[in-house]
Amino acid sequence: MRKTVWQAARATFQLAKAAVLAFGSIIFITVLLITATATLAVVGAGLLPETVLLIRRIAGAKRRQVAGWTGREIPEAYQTITGPLRERLRTATRDPGTHADLLWMVAYYGYGFLPCLMLPLWPLGLLVDGVWSGLLGREAVILPLISRLADLDAAWSQSLLKPSPKAQLAVRVEELTQTRAGAVAAHGAELRRIERDLHDGTQARLVSLSMRIGLAKREYDRDPEAARRLLEDAQDQAEEALTELRHVVRGIHPPILTDRGLAGAVRALAASSGLDVTVAVDGLEDGAGEGGPRAPAAVEAAAYFVVAEALTNAAKHSGSERAEVRLARAPTGLRVRVRDEGRGGADESGGSGLLGMRRRVAALDGTVGVTSPVGGPTVIEVELPCVW
């Protein structure tokens, strides 16, 4: 009996919150009607996007309320309302997620009265179940109905607030549009970096090499010794140009990835990072060709650059002498985890390269998680989806 009363009290609290939200929704419908009327009169058109945002907040409160009762999250699928007024109006009126919220609000006026049904159940349940369950030891009959009311309210709300396939598709298209823009920006920055490296480094050395060879040709008949020195200088210039070309090529796609795989390339990267780096590999092919399968080339390249950027940041900014890198094969893709014991406080706006890392990973539909409290440690976790 005590457990039954406790469960009924918990359901009562849930229904009380639902009643408060239902009452707020009834009041809000007045604001919505006024906004709609003003919009038709072209007087309050600017209020419509703000009203839609308010509807989203109310629906979000109901989602959190239902999730607290059922333990199951209800995802949201909304298009972002930004830009000039015309674009915001278009998004506010065409967003499928907003249409679902409006449908829920209309339906909520119908089943929002459910919390009122619990009021007579309490005195009746305490009387009937007190005798039936407390004295006779039978299973309670009336008080469990309060929990069923809460379950019914949650089930109907979950069914109405769950994003439709059309809403999920619209959000997915918006995400892919943003991802494509980030990938184009990252690609443009990479092209500019390669162009700058070739122009300021390799091209300058090749010009100097051509000039020295030309001087050596002119000095060959008059002063063979001077011509020999010029040719030696030209040879040094050629070797330096080749070194810089290799550096540029490694920035495009490290050849070591093709030769030794991701695990071997990361181990070589760790050895040259200047830190004491521990590398752990789980389920991936190592440098000797043993272990699990290899990820696609694009995924390996993204993971390599994530590790390279993370170790560079750790060496420059963390103040730590040690770092850990873990590469793991997951059922849905490749997971990369880099941890250092430095001072923490990593800031994406501080030019630490985290923004570029996010763009590179987002281009492959991956995710990046950064945990860096002040005082450390800093942990960067990346998941890159792929098919094994």
Write the layout of secondary structure elements.
Layout: H1 2-40, H2 47-70, H3 85-94, H4 96-111, H5 118-135, H6 144-161, H7 165-222, H8 224-252, H9 255-271, E1 276-282, H10 297-318, E2 322-330, E3 333-340, H11 354-362, E4 367-371, E5 378-385
Parallel strand pairs: 1-2
Antiparallel strand pairs: 2-3, 3-5, 4-5
Helix pairs in contact: 1-2, 1-6, 2-4, 2-6, 4-6, 7-8, 7-11, 9-10, 10-11
Beginning-to-end CA distance, first to last residue: 54 Å
Count every helix, treating DSSP H or I runs of 4 or more residues as helices. 11
Order of helices and strands: HHHHHHHHHEHEEHEE
Describe the main β-sheet briefly: 5 strands, mixed
| Largest sheet strand order | 1-2-3-5-4
Number of strands: 5
In the predicted model, the low-confidence regions spanning at least 5 consecutive residues are: none
Walkthrough of the structure:
This protein has 388 residues and is of the alpha+beta class. The protein has eleven helices and five strands. The protein has helices at 2-40, 47-70, 85-94, 96-111, 118-135, 144-161, 165-222, 224-252, 255-271, 297-318, 354-362, and strands at residues 276-282, 322-330, 333-340, 367-371, 378-385. Strands 1-2-3-5-4 form a five-stranded mixed β-sheet, with helices on one face.
What are the key terms here?
388 residues, alpha+beta, 5-stranded mixed β-sheet, elongated
